[in-house]
Design goal:
Keywords: Kelch repeat, Repeat. InterPro entries: F-box-like_dom_sf, F-box_dom, Kelch-typ_b-propeller, Kelch_1, Kelch_FKB95. It comes from Momordica charantia (Bitter gourd). By secondary structure, the chain is mainly β. The protein is built from six helices and 28 strands. It has three domains: about 40 residues, no CATH class; about 130 residues, no CATH class; about 150 residues, Kelch-type beta propeller (Neuraminidase, 6 Propeller), CATH 2.120.10. Strands 3-2-1-28 form a four-stranded antiparallel beta sheet, with no helix packed on it.
Length: about 350
């Protein structure tokens, strides 16, 4: 009897030493505990063991943080300094001491390029194309994995291009129009599938190279163009169900003068023609409505916008930043009530801003 009771067939399986996430605790409880550690310490956690490193790069980790409302949003700003050198800064919105920090890593070949695409998709940032005085438009694409804190080179664009529109729609990356190399066609757009790491090229005569800005709204891509013939602004709209581009001359286009974001399916634009004034497009009334203006002491145009939940973050020269909560929007004598983040002691220009939540 003793030999039967003592046999391994009736004992609980013994976990190999060092395999548990936290000694003495089931892995599900350990995961629940570890996932509550703020994102800024995740790099330190990866240094504990290979098991922890693999865990923090897994879908299980991100699903747990999302399910328990622990995901944190960081903003990434692509900038250019006085020496024309490109850099990237990051802002932790959840930190009690909010401040911009420079990312140490960036593909060195991108330091002097202009007209690059900068986009966020999932947990990754993409740096695309670009050109310089000594370099024609390039087709190079680099991907930054925030979970691994590293850049890798991925499949190149179908057409080398710079100063083009870049948007994400239905988990695919679009590179639209712009200036292409001699072998490229400016009336084209490329679509990137991250699952297969491949680009698919398309042509459409409605695509032009004078692209000023773009936005994804109502499941469609809107690209704002400027006609060199009649100096009129208009927009092209891409409908994914038909794969076609069509021209739009609606009232929405006439007031789309500046960086734009979508918050709760509503379009907001920062008008910088005189100070910084936030405008909202009323789809019901088909007109632009003024929300309010930001204090000239806090914003330093030219600015870029990024939406984080119901908040709009305005990032200007020197990374001067203002955070405006749309749900609690108030004004005092026409000036919007907002919080701010001190700017850096430099005059770097902000080229684009994106956010990633993990």
């Amino acid at each position: 009897m003793d030999s039967v009771l003592g046999s391994n067939s009736l004992e609980e399986p013994i976990q190999p030493p060092g395999r548990s996430l936290l000694p003495g605790l089931p892995d599900d409880i350990a995961l629940s505990i570890l996932s509550r550690i703020p994102r800024k310490y995740h790099h330190n956690l990866k240094c504990v063991s290979k098991r922890w490193k693999d865990l923090l790069s897994s879908e299980e980790w991100y699903s747990c943080r999302e399910k328990n409302h622990l995901a944190e949003t960081w903003i990434y700003a692509l900038c250019r300094d006085k020496s024309e050198r490109v850099s990237c800064y990051v802002l932790d919105l959840n930190s009690s001491k909010r401040c911009w920090k420079r990312m140490k890593s960036l593909p060195t070949c991108s330091f002097k390029r202009k007209g690059m695409g900068f986009e966020a998709m999932g947990k990754k940032l993409y740096l695309l194309g670009g050109c310089s005085w000594s370099e024609d438009a390039t087709d190079e694409v680099y991907c930054y994995d925030t979970s691994k804190n590293s850049w890798i080179k991925v499949a190149p664009l179908s057409s080398a291009r710079c100063y083009f529109a870049c948007e994400v729609l239905n988990e695919k990356l679009y590179a639209i129009g712009g200036l292409c190399s001699n072998s490229g066609d400016p009336q084209s757009w490329d679509v990137y599938d991250p699952c297969s790491n491949t680009w698919e090229s398309h042509l459409d005569k409605n695509i032009q190279n004078e692209i000023e800005s773009s936005i994804v709204m109502d499941g469609k891509i809107y690209v704002r163009l400027h006609s060199s013939v009649d100096s009129q602004a208009y927009a092209m709209v891409y409908e994914p169900s038909s794969g076609m581009w069509q021209r739009s001359d609606s009232e929405m286009v006439s007031g789309w003068r500046g960086p734009a974001v979508i918050v709760d399916e509503t379009l907001y634009v920062l008008d910088q023609s005189s100070g910084t004034r936030l405008m909202m497009w009323s789809n019901e009334d088909k007109e632009w409505l003024p929300v309010g203006r930001f204090s000239a002491l806090l914003t330093r145009p030219p600015c870029q916008l990024v939406a984080v939940g119901r908040r709009i973050v305005v990032v200007g020269k020197g990374l001067s930043s203002v955070i405006f909560d749309v749900s609690n929007g108030r004004t005092m004598e026409g000036v919007m009530v907002s919080s701010s983040i001190p700017r850096l002691d430099s005059d770097i220009d902000v080229l684009a801003c994106k956010c990633i939540t993990i």
